[in-house]
Design a protein that fits this description.
The protein starts with 6 loop residues before the first helix and ends with a helix. It contains twelve helices and nine strands. 39% of the residues lie in helices and 17% in strands. Helix 8 runs antiparallel to helix 9, helix 9 packs across helix 10 and helix 9 packs across helix 12. Helix 3 links the parallel strand 2 and strand 3. It has two domains: 202 residues, Vaccinia Virus protein VP39 (Rossmann fold); 67 residues, Helicase, Ruva Protein, domain 3, CATH 1.10.8.
């Protein structure tokens, strides 16, 4: 079998099956021969484990994962890629391709059915347009997986991995920290893809936590407070929370003072514990 990192071979297979790239689906296939083996190795799966891949494209990463893990299940939205994958993965007997939308599929049921035993890891080159919603779905659904090793746009990686209390932190950064321990692994240049995107990428790993780093009564309330805190980034926390939660500014100022924070504090300066304290005050004093 030809190497899937041979651009000429990939182009020939895609042309053979009448496939053309869709900008709407964010299709950029990896062809750099050094990236996928590294990604597969760093995802953490062994010969006893399963891997869930989202968006296999032409199957370059899929094949590397198949040589690393016991079984790979690849979820592909684009029906046009099914015959392509059938050809490129013909020699891999431990790969199952599932056609469907990973944002809508019952992933708990998929994992129960396809991986009845052993650990499961997620590894994927995520299309840029679904990066944040897909990662949040994987985290919020509390899937029985060990970690997510995903390639995303570099700017998105920096935002996702930014720890609370830093300037780059946003609402999604706090959520990622709540559910996982994020780390940036290595950069991938735009030239590693076919067709090349306009920006570089980064591979990150989110290792799921056994339990959140802070205790909260209601997670939904915590994230409502987090989102409100960042809704007006240029303003102080008191202004953002007041507007985002529809609570009088005097009451918000009282919460900030009781949380031990300075009056002029901004959202990116807060720790997860600070958010948890504010969420509890909001829950007990303003929730109906």
């Amino acid at each position: 079998m030809e190497k899937l990192t041979d651009i000429r071979y990939v182009k020939a297979v895609l042309e053979k099956h009448g496939f053309t790239f869709s900008k709407a689906l964010g299709q950029n296939f990896l062809v750099n021969p050094g990236v996928c083996p590294k990604m597969a190795a760093m995802c953490g799966a062994t010969a006893e484990d399963g891997v869930l891949e989202i968006g296999p494209g032409a199957g370059v990463l899929t094949r590397e994962l198949a040589h690393t893990a016991k079984k790979v299940v690849a979820v592909e939205l684009d029906k046009r890629l099914l015959p392509v994958l059938e050809e490129t993965l013909a020699e891999e007997n431990n790969v199952t391709v599932v056609q469907g939308d990973a944002m809508k599929l019952d992933l708990h049921e998929l994992i129960r059915r396809e991986f009845p035993e052993g650990r499961v890891f997620v590894c994927a080159n995520l299309p840029y347009y679904i990066t944040s919603p897909m990662i949040m779905r994987l985290l919020e659904d509390r899937l029985p997986v060990q970690s997510l090793t995903v390639m995303v746009q570099k700017e998105a990686a920096q935002r996702l991995c930014a720890p609370p209390g830093t300037r780059a932190c946003g609402a999604i950064s706090a959520a990622v920290q709540f559910y996982s321990q994020p780390e940036m692994l290595f950069s991938v240049s735009a030239g590693s893809f076919l067709p090349p995107p306009k920006v570089d990428s980064e591979v990150i790993r989110l290792t799921l936590r056994d339990k959140p780093p802070v205790e909260v009564t209601e997670e939904a309330v915590l994230f409502r407070v987090v989102r409100a805190s960042f809704c007006q980034r240029r303003k102080t926390l008191s202004n953002s929370l007041s507007a985002g939660l529809s609570v009088p500014k005097a009451q918000v100022s009282s919460w900030i003072e009781r949380a031990g924070l300075p009056p002029s504090v901004r959202a990116e300066q807060l720790s997860l514990q600070d958010f948890a304290v504010l969420a509890e005050l909001f829950r007990t004093e303003s929730q109906p």
